[in-house]
Amino acid sequence: MASLAECRAHIRLLHRMDEAECLEYLRRPCQWPRKMRQAMHGKALALIAAARAHGPSEIEAFLLEYSLSSADGQALMGLAEALLRIPDAATKDAMIADTLERGQWDGHRGHSDSAVVNLSSIALTLARRGVGLDLAQWPIRQALEFGMGRLGGIFVMGETIAAALRRAAAADQAGFRHSFDMLGEEARTAGQAESYRASYHAAIAAIGAASPGQGPLSGPGVSVKLSALHPRYHPLQKQRVMAELVPVVVDLCRAAQAVDIGLTIDAEEADRLDLSLDVVEAVLAAPGLAGWNGLGVAVQAYQKRAIGVIDWAAAAARHFHCRLSVRLVKGAYWDSEIKRAQERGLPHYPVFTTKAATDLSYLACAQAMLAAPNLIQSAFASHNAATIAAIDVLAGERQDWEFQRLHGMGEAVYRPMLDRRSCRVYAPVGRHCHLLPYLVRRLLENGANSSFVHLAADPRVAPEDVVNAPVDESRLAPPVMIFSPQRRLSLGRDLCDGETISHMQQRLAGLSCGDVEIPAGDPQDIVNQAIDAFAGWDGLGGARRADMLECAADLLEAEPEPFLHLAIVEAGKIWVDAIAEIREAVDFLRYYAAEARRLCVHALVLPAVTGEANQLEIRGRGVFVCISPWNFPLAIFIGQVAAALAAGNTVVAKPAPQTPRMAIAATALLHRAGVPPAVLAVVLGGADLGADLVGQPGIAGIAFTGSHATARRIAAILAQGQGPLVPLIAETGGVNAMIVDSSALPEQAAADIVASAFGAAGQRCSALRLLFVQEEIADSVLDLVAGMAGQMRLGDPLDPATDMGPLIDAAALARLQADQRALASHGRMLFTGAVPETGVFMAPTAYEVGWDHLPTHESFGPLLQVRRWRRDQLPLVLTWLRQNGHGLTLGIHSRIDTLCQQIGKEARIGNIYVNRGMTGAMVGCQPFGGMGLSGTGPKSGGPFTLLRYATEIVTSINVTARGGNVDLLCRRK
Ligand code: NAI
C-alpha cells in the first residue's frame, strides 16, 4: 500500500488531471458483469416503487409543487432564505411584496397534500390579492413566517441539541442512527469560532450522556465543520491554522473519545481539501488519539481527487493504527465550485462537470472503501435510488457499513430497507432563522428539475425514466475557454495548492527589482517619433495589431513572475492582488485584440441609394498620450496602451513615478511582441512631465486614469492648445457607497464590506468608502466587519499569508491621517488596529458619521465611513448618492429585487454590484468606469471602448461614374 506522502502526491495529480483522463482512470475498476448491472437496475426500480407507495415527504411535496426552475419556486426560495432573519416588519413586508410580484400563486392552492405547501400557497394567494393594500394590516406576514418556520422545522432536527436528541428518540425516528450537525457556516471572527467550539463541546457532552455505551459505530455521532472553528480556515493561512485549529480539533476528539461517540469532519470547498487532510493527519498523530476508531471524514465524490482521498484514508488508518470512518457524499457546492474555477481562470475544474461522472466516481470510491474494511468504516450518503441500489448490490451480504440520509429526505427509500441495512440520519441542529440558507442550498441541490429527488417524487415520471433520466452529458469548457472563440481567459494561479505556492516562492526569491533605467530622449522628440510612426502603424490593419497584442498576452502569461515580483515589491500588492493584476493585463490585451479584429479589419458597409457604395472605417487618431496611476501599475498601464494601439494609434505612455519599473517591463514586453519602439515609447517622470506631454503639439488624444484634480489640470492645458481639439478620456476616483438593508445576510454583507473597503489596503478607485447599513442589522454587521478586519494580517506582501501590504508612500499615509483626524473630530471610531513597526501602513479603520458629515472626497486607503439608516430614510440615502457628484461604483446588499432596481435607476453610478463585493471588475464582462466627477467614459474593457480611441472615415463612391449603374440596368425579376 502507498505511503501517506505518496497518497497526497496522487491526490494532487488527480486534481490537475484532465476530466476525461480522470474518468478513464475511474472507469476501469467499475466494469461490472452484466448480471450485476441488471441487479442494480432492478433494485433501483424497486426502490422507487416502494418509495412512491410510501408517499413523498413534506420537502419532496414542496419541491414538486414549486419547481425550482419556475419563477414561483425561485421567488419562494428567496423568501425562505431571508424572511425569518429579517428583524423589522417594514422590510419583511417589502420582501413579501417583492416575492408576490415575482410569482403566479393562485394556481398552487390546494394542489398538495402537504400542509406547508398549502399554507404557503394560501398565504401567498391571499397576499397577492391584497397587493396595493397595506400589507401590515394583513395576518399574511404571520402566516408566511409560520410557513417558513414549519419548513425549517422539517429540515432541522431541533433548535437545540436537547430538542434534537428528544426528537431523534421519538417513534418516527426509530431504526435510524443519527449524526448531529451543529449547523455552523464558516466562522468569520474569533468570537464566532469560539462560540461554535463551545457549542460542539456541549453537543458532544449531551450526545454522550444521551447514549451511553453505544460506541462510535452504532451510536449517534457529531459532525464538525473545520471552517466553523477557525476564522481564517484557508490554505494561505496554513501555519496559523495548524498552530491554532489542530489543538481545538484534538480537544473535541478527546471529548468525543471520552464519551465514546464518533466525530466526523465535514467536507467543504475544494480549496480547503488539502488543508483538511493536513489537519486530520495532525489530529490522528496527537497523543492519546492513536488507535481511536471514532474519527471520520466526509469525502465528496464530485471532486476529481475523491478516489485518491479514499486511498489516503486507508493509508492514514494503517499509519495511525486505527479505523477511519468515511462518509461518501456527492458534494453540495457544485455550482459554486464551477463558478470559482471560472473566476480564477484555473487550468481545470476541481470537480467533474457532469452528473454521470460524479455518479461513476461515487461508485468507484464506494468500491474502494468496501475493499478496505479493516481500515475504513464506510458510510454512503445519497438519496438517489440508482446509487443506493448499486451500493446495496456491491456490498452483497456484508453488514459492516451504513447508509446515510439527510433529515427530512429519503426516508421513504430507506425505511423499507432497515431490516437489512443500517441507515444514519444527518441531523442539522440550530435556530431556524440561521438554518434557512442551509436549507435553501439543500433544496437547490436536490430540487432542480433534472435531479433525482425531484424526478423520483413526481408520479408522472415512470420509474424506468427516473433511473435512465436523460441528463446533459456535455462537459463544460475548461475555465480559460469559456469565452472562446473570441478570446482565451487569462490563466490564474491556484493559491490553494501548496506546491504552486512554494514554486512561486522559489521563482520570486530569485528576482530582484533592479535600478530604473530612464529611457533616453526628450519628450518632444519622442512625440515627434510617434507622429512619424503613426501612418505605418495605422495602415498595418487591425488583424496584424491584434496578433501583436495577443503575442504580448501569451508572453506575459508564459512568464508572469517578473511582473508579479514588481507588483509585490514595487507596488506593495499582496499575492492574490498581484495575480489579479497580471490576469487583468492579459485580459485587456486579448480583449482589445479581439475588438481590433471586430472593428478595425473590415470596413462597415452602410446603406446606400442605388449606384452608390458607402462604407465606414475605424482608424487611429494619431498619437495618444497615456497617463496612468500607480495603483494598477500593470493593468491600467497596459489597458490604456493596448486600447490605443489596437485602434491604430501610436503611444507615448507616462506611468506614475511610484511604479516606473513595471511600466518599463510592460513596454519591453510589447516591444518583444512586435510593437516597434517608435510606436510605443515610455517616458518617466511626475506631474511636470505629464503636463509637458499633454501640452505637446501634434497630440491626438489623451487617456488618463488618476485623480479628478489631475484630470482637471489636464483639461485646462488642453483648453489652452491652439491646434485641433484633443479628446480626453479620463477615469477618475469616486466616493463609493454600499447600501445594506436588513434583508441582507449579515455574514455575506460583512465579508463583501471587508473585501471592498480594506482589500488592496483600500487603494482601489472602486473601493468602498461609505457604508449605509440599515439600523436593525447595523450592530451585527458592524461587529462582524470589525471582527473580520481584526483578523487581517498586515505586513510584508512577499509573504503569501499577508492580507494587507503597505500604502504606496508616506504622502499617501499623511493624507489619510489628515482625513482620520477630521473624522475623529466629528465621528465615532468603530475600530482600528495595530500596524507593523516598520513600513508605511494603515490598519483597517472605520468611523461612524452623522448625516451632516457624509464624505465629500475620496480617502484613498483602508478608511471606511459608516452611516446607519432607517427604512424611511432611504430617500436621504438616494439624495446623497445623486448629489455627491461622483458616480463610479455602488454596492447593494438586499434580497429585495424591487429595491435594488429602484436604487439602480435613481443613482447615477457607472458600476453597480448587487449582493457581492464591489471591486475587481472583469474585462469584457463588467466594463468599468464612472460618470460625473468620476470620469468621462468610455468604460474600459467594454464594447465601446475602442471607438473613443479611434476616428471614423466614411467613403462614398459613385459606382455609376465608370459606365453607368450596371446593377440597376441588369436587374432581373
Ligand atoms: P494622480 O492623479 O496624482 O496621478 C495619476 C497620473 O497622473 C500619474 O501618472 C501622475 O504622474 C500624473 N499626473 C499628475 N499630475 C499631472 C498633470 N498635471 N498633468 C499630467 N499628468 C499628471 O493619481 P494617483 O494618486 O496616482 O492615483 C490615485 C487616483 O487615481 C485616485 O483618485 C483613484 O481613484 C484614481 N483611479 C481611478 C481609476 C478609474 O478607473 N476610475 C482607477 C485607478 C485609480
TrEMBL record:
Residues 59-154 form the Proline dehydrogenase PutA domain. The lineage of its organism: Bacteria, Pseudomonadati, Pseudomonadota, Alphaproteobacteria, Rhodospirillales. Pathway: Amino-acid degradation; L-proline degradation into L-glutamate; L-glutamate from L-proline: step 2/2. It catalyses: L-glutamate 5-semialdehyde + NAD(+) + H2O = L-glutamate + NADH + 2 H(+). This is L-glutamate gamma-semialdehyde dehydrogenase. Keywords: NAD, Oxidoreductase. InterPro entries: Ald_DH/histidinol_DH, Ald_DH_C, Ald_DH_CS_CYS, Ald_DH_N, Aldehyde_DH_dom, Bifunct_PutA, FAD-linked_oxidoreductase-like, PRODH_PutA_dom_I/II. It comes from Magnetospirillum sulfuroxidans. Its EC number is 1.2.1.88. Residues 164-454 form the Proline dehydrogenase domain. Residues 524-949 form the Aldehyde dehydrogenase domain.
